[in-house]
Amino acid sequence: MTAAASGPGPAMPPRKRGRPARTSASDGPATRDRILIAARNEFAERGYDKTSIRGIAKAAEVDPALVHHYFGTKEQVFEAAIELIFAPAMGVPDAVHGSREGAGERMARYMFGIWENPVSRLPLLAVMRSALTNETAAAVLRGMIERRVLLRMAGELDVPNPEFRAQLAAGHLIGIAMLRYVIRMEPMASAETDDIVAMVGPTLQRYLTES
């Protein structure tokens, strides 16, 4: 008998770069949501510098190419993740909408309600720490707050220089949040929320409503 000729098998087609092949288990809206949640958790736990696309993909149990496919660069993934983290704060413009009377107190009570909730506080703290140590993270956070919160809030204010006033109000609250929740400076850290709101509300009221 003549032995069958041996040799190299048929040439394999070159592997295509970019998006992996679509499968029901690894693609679709559910996968995108899983990646986004994994990204939120990774950024919250590790900060911007120590989070990687590969780490997000591992946490979401997907190929890193899918992370790039849905969100692009690490900066773009971070932007999507902090939008999810800051979703509760997107209601601030609604809190100041309506009667001018009490707008400052409503805004303060709304924001401190978010900070006092451990579920929302921990990711917020992580994002703020990232913004303090990384300029890319700071730029993304700054842009998101400006577009999604401050510009909408300014649209609700019937006063001169509404954007500047919205920034003053937001800066006042962010400064208090830094002392209370990040630096944990006493007596601010252990003060009653109602006491802080009572002190801060009139100042915010002046920013938001006084001509």
What is the topological layout?
Blueprint: H1 29-50, H2 53-60, H3 64-71, H4 74-85, H5 92-96, H6 103-116, H7 118-133, H8 135-155, H9 162-182, H10 193-209
Helix pairs in contact: 1-2, 1-4, 1-7, 2-3, 4-8, 6-10, 7-8, 8-9, 9-10
Rg value: 24 Å
Largest sheet: none
How many individual helices? 10
Question: Ranges with pLDDT <50 over ≥5 residues?
Answer: 1-25
The domain tally reads 2
Reading the helices and strands in chain order gives HHHHHHHHHH
Count the beta strands: 0
User: Into which percentage range does the β-strand content fall?
Assistant: under 5%
Helix percent reads 55-70%
CATH class of the largest domain: Mainly Alpha
Shape: globular
CATH topology of the largest domain: Tetracycline Repressor, domain 2
Give average pLDDT, whole number.
Answer: 84
CATH level-four homologous superfamily name of the largest domain: Tetracycline Repressor, domain 2
CATH architecture term of the largest domain: Orthogonal Bundle
SS content category: mainly alpha
- Measured between the Cα atoms of the first and last residue, the distance is 103 Å
Region (Disordered): 1-31
Protein name: TetR family transcriptional regulator
DNA-binding region: 52-71
Domain HTH tetR-type: 29-89
Question: Would you give an account of this structure?
Answer:
This protein has 10 helices and no strands. The protein folds into 2 domains: 28-82, Homeodomain-like (Arc Repressor Mutant, subunit A), CATH 1.10.10.60; 87-209, Tetracycline Repressor, domain 2. The model is unreliable at 1-25 (pLDDT under 50). The termini are far apart. The chain is mainly α and 211 residues long. 28% of the residues are buried.
